[in-house]
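Figure 2 data, in text form.
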Amino acid sequence: MKVTIDKDLCIDCGVCEALVPEVFSINDEGFTEVILNPVPEELQDAVREAAEECATEAIIIEED
């Protein structure tokens, strides 16, 4: 699984970082970024949950 964030949609609310801090992080400039790609199998369900919880549907998942 690979994951990206649509910067045009993302409002940097931090929900994804709260759910999966191993994969998502808010950087020093206040923008959300993916810090672990590809996503290890043991974190994939959590990333799917983060995508579902994303208020703006900014998380894009590419399944292998």
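Caption note: The chain has one domain: 2-62.
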